[in-house]
Amino acid sequence: MELISQRRSIRQFKPDPVPRQLIEQVLEAARWAPSGGNRQGFRFIVVQSPAMLARMDQAVARAVEALLQHVRPEFREEFARYSGNFMHFAQAPLVIAPIYRSYREGTDFLTMITGGTHSDDRGPLKADADSLAAVSAAIMNLLLAVHTLGLGACWMTGPLFARTSLSKLLEVPRSWEIAALIPLGYAQHRPAAPERRPLARLITYLD
Ligand SMILES: Cc1cc2nc3c(=O)[nH]c(=O)nc-3n(C[C@H](O)[C@H](O)[C@H](O)COP(=O)(O)O)c2cc1C
Prior knowledge:
This protein is α+β, with helices and mostly antiparallel strands.
C-alpha cells in the first residue's frame, strides 16, 4: 500500500542520465504485466537521443499550436494550462514510448471463429481494448518499479495530440499505436499527493 500510495507523477527531472541497468529493471517489471490470452501485445521504445527528444518536442508543440487555432477564445487560458502539463516531457533524460498492437486492420477473434456470422456486445473493438488494457497494466507495473528504484516518471497521453507525427518519428510499425509517452529520470521535485475520492464513493455493493 505504501508503494502504491506514495508513487507520484514526476514532471521535472535532474539532468543526470539513468543507467541502462535501471531502465531494464523498470521494463522487466512491465514485461510481467497480465495480458488478454497472454498475448503480450506491447513493446517499448526507449528514446535517449537529445536530437530525437527535441524533434518529438517540436512535433507536440506544432500539434498544440495547430489545435490552438481552433480553441474558442474563452477556453484558451484553460487549454494553455492543460497543455502546459505535457509540453515539457523532452526535458527528461529519456522518454519511454510504450506501444500496443492494434488489430483494427485485421480480423477480430469472434469474426474469425464464427466465420463472420456473429458479433457480441464487445464488438470489433474488443481486441484493441484488450491490447490497450494490457499495455496500461504494463505501464502501471513500470511506474511502481520506477518509484521503488528511486526514479520518477509520468504517464502522459497529452502528447498524443501529435500521435501521427510521433509514430513517424519513432518508426512505430504499422498496426501498432503509441499508448503514452513516459518521461523518466531522477525527480527534481516531490509533489504532494493529489486528493483521491473517498473509497465509499467508489464502491457499490450489490448484496
Ligand atoms: C492515462 C493517463 C494519462 C495522463 N496524461 C498526463 C499528461 O498528459 N500530462 C501529465 O502531466 N500528466 C498526465 N497523467 C498523470 C495524471 O495527471 C496523474 O496521475 C494524476 O494527476 C494523479 O497524480 P499522481 O500520479 O501523482 O498520483 C496521466 C495519467 C494517466 C493515467
